[in-house]
Amino acid sequence: MTNSATLVLGATGKTGRRVAARLRLRGTAVRAASRSSGTPFDWADPAGWDRALQGVAAVYIVPPAVPGPVHEFVARADAAGVQRLVLLSGRGADLWGDSTFGLDMRSAEDAVRGSALEWTVLRSSNFDQNFDEDLFHAPLAAGELALPAGEVPEPFIDIDDVADVAAAVLDQPGRHAGRIYELTGPRALTFAEAVGLISRASGLPITYKQVSPAEYTAALVDQGWSEDDAHHVAEMFVIMERGVIAGTTGDVAAVLGRAPRTFEDYVVRVAAAGTWQR
Question: Pairing mode, if any, of strands 118-124 and 144-147?
């Protein structure tokens, strides 16, 4: 049997569902895998991995939240005849130093980059969609976003640009082999500036408040987060405040031949949908 399908892990998640849809439009045979999909996949249950990998030529990997499993997965992918791996990781992963943040992503990078397969790593900045599909949405809808982020800007990227890049890389064998793409939006914004744009576009009185990492960790714990998970998220902001990942890159344009979408474009779309309305 010739391996020809593309396996998309996390196929019901933020990036996975977008990548799968784009590949289908390209005419690519997609095997969508997640804990709730027709092709079941669970990082905590290796017994199901081999079935998911049968007949697969390329894999889009969204790593698990714990270090380690991707090493075994890559070994099984190699044994199954997989040819290409595309890994989603975090912006500037090799600049995070001794931080406890992102150990899962760094472990996954080690597994993929150390394999004999063709690989590409997509290191993404914070998604625009974190403001409407994730952690920041509820506070914005309540009128105030409080985070441990100050004057160091973040080059937020539209998740649709990340999906466009992933689909292009998965569908172009050889062209992106051994490449690490640092994916950013076209300009960096502080969180206060980002919230200001959301407030203006939505017409809602939404404000930004800077808090300390300790205060933010405590607030997450009060919301039901575990101490470890809350500390992990707060550590991301500590890295951001160092300024080592604040700059923009041209990697989206290098892959797609066009500039990345602006934050303003994202805000207009989401505000028009009424997503931040109370």
Answer: unpaired
Interval 23-44: pLDDT, tens: 999 999 999 999 988 899 999 9
Q: At what angle do helices 227-241 and 213-222 cross, to 10 degrees?
A: 150
Residue 83 to residue 118: CA distance in whole angstroms: 6
CA dihedral 225, 231, 237, 239 (to 10 degrees): -150
User: Residue 240, SS3?
Assistant: helix
What SS3 class is residue 109? helix
Classify the C-alpha dihedral 139-65-254-240 as positive or negative. positive
CA 82 – CA 115 distance, rounded (Å): 11
First to last CA, the chain: 54
Q: Which amino acid is at 199?
A: S
**Digit-coded pLDDT (tens) for 182-232:** 999 999 999 999 999 999 999 999 999 999 999 999 999 999 999 999 999
Q: Is the dihedral of CA 264, 267, 273, 278 positive or negative?
A: negative
Tokens of 165: 């890049």
Residue 145 main-chain phi, psi, to 5 deg: -110, 120
Specify whether the CB–CB gap between 278 and 203 falls below 8 A: no
Cβ pair 42, 35 in contact under 8 A: yes
pTM recorded for the entire structure: 0.96
CB 64, CB 74: distance < 8 Å: no
